[in-house]
């Protein structure tokens, strides 16, 4: 199905313009019943989208700012791979102080989601120490030496408690800030993992020190290399992961 499925949200909905976003989805601003919103169309399965929308509803109930899914005319939170979400006003982080606020927001996300079930079909970084595949990651497609480096980096996080991680918080386009609010958007890569994967931030905004900082930065670089393999960005990230 294509964008014609926006009709599930009623007759008064239209696409306005394409938005820059992740590589996995087609994202547009839309006008729905006279109000601006954001529509995302991708290939995620229903169970995957149910996990994401249920997570956002949980966070909203806890007072954590998130873009909220807008139901279809018959009450569904997604239809035919499309999710329509509220439009969030604000701008990206620009300073060290901004990124420190982002770090605080991420830590609150992790606090609110300890013990959350894994996203259907996904694997955590520490699962991939032994597993070969998980959603967009296929370690079989990477050179053996690269896999060994990634697994060595993830093994440093083994045994730690897990929570929901946003999955791509270092991209300023995924963060919308005002003077009194930090909102994480684009939850398409969110899953359950070791929280430190989210905390390898610009300016070391999370304040990680020594071994903890090194382990987080190595694990995060390995994760992004595996997720994006094998474009130029992935190759660059892999270069940051030390050889075993």
TrEMBL record:
UniProt-recorded name of the protein: Phosphotransferase
Organism: Devosia sediminis
SUPFAM superfamilies per UniProt: Protein kinase-like (PK-like)
Cited InterPro entries: Aminoglycoside_PTrfase, Kinase-like_dom_sf
Pfam families: APH
Aminoglycoside phosphotransferase domain residues: 16-221
């Amino acid at each position: 199905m294509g964008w014609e499925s926006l009709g599930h949200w009623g007759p008064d909905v239209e696409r306005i313009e394409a938005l820059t976003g992740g590589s996995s989805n087609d994202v547009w601003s839309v006008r729905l019943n006279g109000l601006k919103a954001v529509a995302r169309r991708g290939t995620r399965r229903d169970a995957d989208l149910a996990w994401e929308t249920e997570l956002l509803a949980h966070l909203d109930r806890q007072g954590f700012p998130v873009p909220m899914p807008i139901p279809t005319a018959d009450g569904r939170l997604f239809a035919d791979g499309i999710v329509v979400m509220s439009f969030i006003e604000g701008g990206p982080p620009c300073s060290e102080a901004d990124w420190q606020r982002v770090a605080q927001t991420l830590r609150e996300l992790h606090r609110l989601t300890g013990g959350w079930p894994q996203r259907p079909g996904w694997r955590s970084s520490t699962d991939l120490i032994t597993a070969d595949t998980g959603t967009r990651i296929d370690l079989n497609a990477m050179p053996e030496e690269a896999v060994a480096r990634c697994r060595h980096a993830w093994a440093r996080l083994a045994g730690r408690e897990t929570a929901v991680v946003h999955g791509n918080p270092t991209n300023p386009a995924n963060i919308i800030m005002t003077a009194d609010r930090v909102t994480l958007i684009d939850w398409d890569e969110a899953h359950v993992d070791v929280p430190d994967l989210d905390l390898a931030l610009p300016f070391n905004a999370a304040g990680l020190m020594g071994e903890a900082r090194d382990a987080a930065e190595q694990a995060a670089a390995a994760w992004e290399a595996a997720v994006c393999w094998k474009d130029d960005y992935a190759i660059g990230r892999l270069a940051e992961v030390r050889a075993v």
